């Protein structure tokens, strides 16, 4: 089925999730033709959950012996141009772009776990996944602002926020329902902790160094004692911080290579709990109630604050 209730974007339902109608053909091709390699690292997220940040951090960590931090690609390239989205690589209908990338590949996806190809999810598959999860109200607000900032997703009228949130609570958003998206990756991270690392945006904000170390250990390149002494983790955290990236010329003025989205639209406030500036108590409750109900019994709670 097709949903055209959102003012800015039509969504199509496929295997229990809502996909942007214009992305779905590429995602379906990816599902059928993407051949994961054992050395692949895939960064997964629901949109507006910290994808850009995770891309920057994972890229900086995994390439740290290749690039000096003082002259780093992230200083002149947007993180989305450093880590390509596998969902988009199949837009021309075949796998050649993904196959042309040299190993080890660092890729990203918004595709739900259950929709990923077998070559990624099967018991034999050795590739790894890092998922970043963010509290749902902040995701909704971040998505709302993102829509306002890019020309082809215009949602500027304020009354539409309430409308948009109602749909969000019905699971209707790009790659929604958000709770199913999060739960699928969460369950897999519990079942196969060597396969899926589950990170929370709020915990990364609170303890960035610790979480970057977890990331490095998970991918098999922990920081050495020498690196610890030289404070390499701290430098990576600094390089990938919102303040640093947001103020780079490339991110102030550039646009993404794959679309015409302004790089600046990926960097806003990065605040935990920014929903408080936008949602009244009833709106907040509507998101909390549905998320609590859906996550009940899973052992997972969203965010670190109410
Ligand atoms: P806000 O809109 O709440 O500020 P995504 O990258 O998945 O599209 O998510 C975008 C959100 O992550 C935005 O949140 C953005 O400001 C925040 N963000 C982007 N880069 C970040 C960084 N380096 N550190 C922390 N947050 C970042």
Helix proportion: 40-55%
The hetero compounds bound to this protein are: adenosine-3'-5'-diphosphate
- Approximately how much beta-strand content do the residues carry? 5-15%
Instruction: Supply the helix-strand structural class.
Output: alpha/beta
The largest beta-sheet arranges its strands as 5-6-4-7-8
Average pLDDT score: 93
Poorly predicted ranges? none
Termini, distance in Å? 34 Å
- From the spread of the alpha carbons, the general shape counts as globular
Along the chain, the helix and strand elements come as EEEHEHHEHEHEHHHEHHHHHHH
Treating each run of at least 4 consecutive H or I residues as one helix, how many helices? Answer: 15
Q: Could you give the count of β-strands? A: 8
| Rg over C-alpha atoms, rounded to the nearest angstrom | 19 Å
Instruction: Report the sheet with the most strands, covering strand number, pairing sense and barrel closure.
Output: 5 strands, parallel
Topology:
Blueprint: E1 2-3, E2 11-14, E3 17-20, H1 24-33, E4 41-45, H2 51-62, H3 79-82, E5 84-85, H4 96-100, E6 106-109, H5 118-121, E7 128-133, H6 136-149, H7 159-169, H8 178-191, E8 196-200, H9 201-206, H10 208-218, H11 225-229, H12 232-239, H13 242-246, H14 249-253, H15 281-295
Parallel strand pairs: 4-6, 4-7, 5-6, 7-8
Antiparallel strand pairs: 1-2, 2-3
Bound molecules: adenosine-3'-5'-diphosphate.
Family: Belongs to the sulfotransferase 1 family.
Organism: Phoenix dactylifera (Date palm)
InterPro entries: P-loop_NTPase, Sulfotransferase_dom
């Amino acid at each position: 089925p097709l949903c055209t209730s959102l003012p800015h974007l039509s969504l199509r339902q496929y295997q229990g999730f809502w996909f942007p109608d214009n992305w779905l053909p590429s995602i379906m091709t990816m599902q059928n033709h993407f051949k994961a390699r054992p050395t692949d690292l895939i960064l997964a997220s629901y949109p507006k959950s910290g994808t850009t940040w995770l891309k920057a951090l994972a890229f900086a960590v995994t390439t740290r012996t290749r690039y000096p931090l003082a002259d780093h690609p992230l200083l002149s390239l947007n993180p989305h141009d450093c880590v390509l989205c596998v969902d988009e690589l199949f837009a021309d209908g075949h796998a050649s772009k993904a196959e042309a990338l040299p190993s080890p590949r660092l890729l990203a996806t918004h595709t739900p776990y259950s929709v990923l190809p077998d070559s990624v999810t099967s018991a034999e598959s050795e590739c790894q996944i890092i998922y970043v999860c963010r509290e749902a109200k902040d995701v909704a607000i971040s998505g709302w602002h993102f829509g306002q900032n890019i020309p082809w997703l215009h949602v500027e009228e304020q009354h539409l926020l309430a409308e948009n949130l109602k749909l969000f609570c019905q699971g209707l958003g790009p790659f929604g329902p958000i709770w199913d998206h999060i739960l699928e990756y969460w369950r897999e991270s519990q079942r196969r902790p060597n396969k899926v690392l589950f990170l929370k945006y709020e915990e990364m904000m609170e303890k960035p160094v610790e979480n970057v170390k977890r990331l490095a250990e998970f991918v098999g390149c922990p920081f050495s004692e020498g690196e610890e002494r030289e404070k390499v983790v701290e430098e990576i955290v600094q390089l990938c911080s919102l303040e640093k990236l947001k103020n780079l010329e490339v991110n102030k003025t550039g646009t993404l290579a794959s679309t015409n989205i302004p790089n600046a639209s990926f960097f806003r406030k990065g605040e935990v709990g920014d929903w408080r500036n936008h949602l009244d108590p009833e709106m907040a409750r509507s998101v909390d109630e549905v998320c609590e109900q859906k996550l009940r019994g899973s052992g997972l709670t969203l965010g670190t604050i109410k």
